[in-house]
Each structure stands twice: as C-alpha cells, then as structure tokens.
Amino acid sequence: MTTSNTYKVYFMTFGCKVNSYETECMRSGFISAGFEVCEDKNSADVILINSCTVTGSGDSKSLYAVRKARKDCPDSVIVLTGCLPQADPDIDKKIPEADIITGTKDRKNIPNLVIEFIKNKNKISEIIPYGNHDDFEITEYESSFSHTRAFVKIQDGCNCFCSYCIIPYARGRCRSKPLDVLGNEVKMLAERGHKEIVLVGINLAFYGKEYNLRLADAVEECSKINGIERIRLSSIEPEMILDKDLERLSKIEKLCPQFHLSLQSGCARTLKAMNRRYNPDEYYSLTRKILEYFPNASFTTDIMVGFPEETEQDFEESLAFAEKVGFAKIHVFQYSPRKGTPAAKMKQVPKDIKMRRADRMKALGEKLREEYLERQVGKTVPVLFERENSAEFHQGHAPDYTLIKVPKGNPEKSLQNYIFYVKIIEGCHDCCLGILKGENQ
Questions:
Q1: Same domain (yes/no): 261, 352
Q2: For the domain that residue 112 is a member of, what is the CATH number?
Q3: Residue 405: which domain range?
Q4: How far is the C-alpha of 387 from the C-alpha of 195, rounded, in Å?
Q5: Do 207 and 237 have their domain in common?
Q6: Better-scored residue on pLDDT, 59 or 378
Q7: Are residues 360 and 420 in the same domain?
C-alpha cells in the first residue's frame, strides 16, 4: 500500500459498452477524489472490478478476477461493483476476497467507501435496491482523448423481462438521460477531439419514454454538436423501431447506417418461449424497411443457441433465418441458466449439443461476414481512421462499421482522427483492404 497521501487505483471491466462507459465515469470520480489511476495492477493500492452478469461465464470471469487480484495483490483494496452484486445481494458470502461490494447504483460514492475502508479496515457491502421510479443517475465524466470513438450512455434499465435474462434485476426499470445533459456531454467530447460517438444503453430503443421522447430525439440532439461527425447506435430491440423513427433517423446525415438488431433466435417457437416481443417475420420486415430508408445499411446481431427445449428443428429454423437476413456479423453465444429467471427452470439442452450448434452458427456467421465484405469491393467510402496500432496499415471504419485497412505509405504519416475516402479493392476474412482516393488510380 502506498505510504503517500495519493493512492493508486486500477480498473478492470467486464461485459458491455455500458460497463465500459461507467468505468470511465468511475475513473473520473476517483481522480476528482485525489486518487491516481494506474495501468499496472501490481502497483495498485485499489483494484476495482466492474462486473458482468449477463451470462454464467460473465459471473465466473468477474469472480475469478476478484480472487486472482486478492492472490496477486494481497495488500490492495479489492472493490467488486456492477451488475453481478446488484443481481445477487448475497454475493458477499460467496466472495470474501472482496473488501468492498457495491451494485449499479450510486457508484460515485465508491471513492468515499475506499477511504472509509482504508481508515477502519471493516468490510463494506452497500447494494442499494432499485425502485420503480428511479431517475437516470448523472455521473461525472471527463473524457481524455485516447480513442477516436467515444461511448455515451443515454439510457439505463429494462422493462422487458425476457425469460432468460437477469438484467432487469441488475439494472432496474427504464430511465433516460435528459436531453440537455446529453447535449452538454457530447459537446465536451467534441471539444476533446472525438469525432464519433456511440450511443449506448441497456435497452437503447426505450430512450425517452418518461419524457415522451424517442431515440431519434437523442440522435438529433447529438447531431447539432459541431465537431461530431458520426453518430452510432449500439444494440436495439427490434420491436421498438417504428416507421416514424426510421423516417426521422434517415434525415440525420451524421447517423451511421449500422443497425445491431438483437435477434436471439430465428425460430418463432423459441422467441415466444424467450418472451421476446416479435417473431421472425416481423424482424425480417423491419430489416427490409430499414433498407428502404438506409440502402447501405449493415445488420449485425446476437444469436443464442441451446435455449431450454430448443429442438434440432428449432435450431435449423434459426440457422436458416440468419442466412435469409444476411447479417454482416453475428455474435453467437450459448444459453447459460440464470438463477431467478423462468428459463432456468425449463428442461435444459445438453452442453455438447449447445457446443455443436454454436460451432455451426459461428461457421455460418463467418461465411456471411466474408460474403458481406466481398460485396463492398469496388465501393468508395469515407473512413474515419483510428489509433495507429499496425506497422503495415492505417485502419479505421466505414459508416457501416466495416473495418478498412490501407497500406502505409513512405514516408509514413498518421491518419488518426481524419476522415478520408477509400476505394475498397479487396475483401478479406475480417476486413476490407483499400487505397486512399486519388492514389494509384
């Protein structure tokens, strides 16, 4: 433990983009409280683990990180925070290695809890339950420009209660960031050099319900900010996107035409058992409607395999539907039971069958990905170049989130945080190769 008055804190983050954003907020809070952020766990006085509980493996990774931190750094203060403790308030009995345990509420108070623990060495477990009418929690966020793209959390909580999901218990009910607060935050990000923002939330499409607003209102607010040139949306629930939303969104030039529409299954029977609020026909119709408004749109998704009672026929239907949509990318994961959810009480699919189905869905996803990238060949697209991390290539993303690599010239010149037009000349396994417009043409 550091003997000076300045304590060093190290952050570990598991899970989604919302967690990444919240870690940045906690980082800002610790700095304001006089702590020093460090990038080496072994030199840290405080190790904060921001946990994920969306899957069983998420729980395992978070708990393993706590135990390993205690083993590797026996004198450090270990903080476990996030969705895992919030969903399991008795977690303190299972993880004695953690000195401080908090949930997903009032995390701006964690630096005070750390100071309190350092003074008296008494273990702290402070998990505040959610109510039905909680406000969106405004947290301190001071971004430093290290990435071209910045996450902006605009929504929290979920009202859907899918039969497999514990997140409504870990995050509470839907609530939204006020538009004026959002505008000020995005302005700050622009002033720090960010050209692209990604709007994130637990159930993003529910943005603004308590204010009689829609997601389009948030996108329009962000589009007004000078210096922000691109706006992306993170995962969206399909049933919440209406024609009037698409019409408004299509008029926002800064909005990138990448739509991550969470599918979970392409089988109607499985979707009903999951308590999802759409069927495959409705999902497919939405993708076709989006293409009417955004002809260059790409579709990415999450697909779960091995949901309880999923038959081989159900899986084949899901597989065929994914191919029908033609996703640009699929995130495949196996169902894992979450204690306290209805699906955990249903008949489970054997592990070996889940693994086999996951392999087949992943293989399809790779095939569709390669086909999508091949279809980009010949196009000229604007690319926002990002941090230089390759000796051979400049790289960045097109509006549809295709990763584009351009060979570095001689002499080398950094393209980071600039937008250049690139002609795509080749599709590869996970990216496209291109040349800057005007070069060798």
A1: yes
A2: 3.40.50.12160
A3: 380-436
A4: 13
A5: yes
A6: 378
A7: no
Last residue of some domain: 345, 375, 405? 375
pLDDT tens digit sequence for 247-269: 999 999 999 999 999 999 999 99
pLDDT given at position 148: 84
Mean pLDDT in residue range 38-44: 94
Percentage of the residues of the chain whose pLDDT score is greater than 70: 96
CA dist 286 and 281 (Å) reads 9
How many domains are there within the chain?
3
CA max distance for the chain = 70
Tokens 């955004």 belong to: 294
Q: Quick one: pLDDT at residue 2?
A: 46
Residue 142 has pLDDT above 80, yes or no: no
305/221 same-domain check: yes
Which pLDDT band holds residue 419 (cuts at 50, 70, 90)?
A: very high
Whole-number Å distance between alpha carbons of 404 and 398 = 7
Given 354, 375, 396, which residue is the final one in a domain? 375
- 161 falls within a domain: yes
Residue 422 near residue 405, CB atoms below 8 Å? no
Has residue 71 been placed in a domain?
Answer: yes
Choose the weakest-confidence range: 75-79, 324-328, 337-341. Answer: 337-341
Identify the residue whose tokens are 């003074």. Answer: 119
What does the alpha-carbon distance between residue 247 and residue 278 come to, in Å, rounded to a whole number?
A: 21
Q: Among 261, 265, 254, 250, which Cα is nearest to 321's?
A: 265
- Give the residue-averaged pLDDT of 132-144: 82
